[in-house]
Amino acid sequence: xxxxxxxxxxxxxxxxxxxxxxxxxxxxxxxxxxxxxxxxxxxxxxxxxxxxxxxxxxxxxxxxxxxxxxxxxxxxxxxxxxxxxxxxxxxxxxxxxxxxxxxxxxxxxxxxxxxxxxxxxxxxxxxxxxxxxxxxxxxxxxxxxxxxxxxxxxxxxxxxxxxxxxxxxxxxxxxxxxxxxxxxxxxxxxxxxxxxxxxxxxxxxxxxxxxxxxxxxxxxxxxxxxxxxxxxxxxxxxxxxxxxxxxxxxxxxxxxxxxxxxxxxxxxxxxxxxxxxxxxxxxxxxxxxxxxxxxxxxxxxxxxxxxxxxxxxxxxxxxxxxxxxxxxxxxxxxxxxxxxxxxxxxxxxxxxx
Length: 353
What we know:
Layout lengths: L2 H13 L25 H36 L3 H16 L7 H10 L1 H5 L1 H20 L5 H23 L2 E3 L5 E3 L7 H4 L3 H9 L6 H5 L18 H16 L4 H19 L2 H25 L4 H14 L6 H15 L16
Antiparallel strand pairs: 1-2
């Protein structure tokens, strides 16, 4: 290239800012495809009818799976001993037969776990786990309040038995310490069966239990408005019991909240030393009272009384860790529920900044 041709090009380059870059292309969000297919009313009707048929077949398939499982589970619910027998059958199927292991391997496992398998509390835990699994299966089909009623009644009875079972596994010494009821130097059965094994059984999701796995139920237990852990009192009430009473018997909701609180407190008291329980109740007690009355106001159930009780909680527990947030929340709530122009400032309880 001749010099006379090169000079104009150099002038352009030198006039450009140092290090100038070509601007990056803007990032664009992916656009959803625009469907151009238009079905006629007849085509739409035909497809929807076919989907209804498939839905019916799916329902029958799930129903047959549940029916086969329920027949065996009801046998296992006859007694704690029957529950253990079914547990061994399911455990063998899931952990040995399906892995093509020998009978000798299963026998060896049983021998190593002899103390645990003979423990009466463990049998009772399996029995309760099986009962809750049956309730879980029944709940999958409870798609309206009238179907929920019998399950709610059974749930309330179950929780009573579960709390009693937990209370029966521990004892409090004269000093207030909590130990296993049969412990001699620590653990039941000479150190092989910690109380935690019993709690572990009932804290496990029943969808992940050996009973459910043996009958391939995991993928069929999908109801979202359900609590799958038998000892999660809060979840059981929030997901199933409270919604039922809200729909069918709202006037009984305050009493049901008291039942939930009492069940949680009884379980904690059984598992904690006196010192631990004292610390727990100091914070958890007022917090549950606040949750109760906040729920009642939100759902317009005895709302005026619930508001008064919320104010009482703030006034009674001004040193509670949640007191400041309660106060702000309560001020905002009063503004929302008051007639325009009538809500004045809410007086701060003594001690709250």
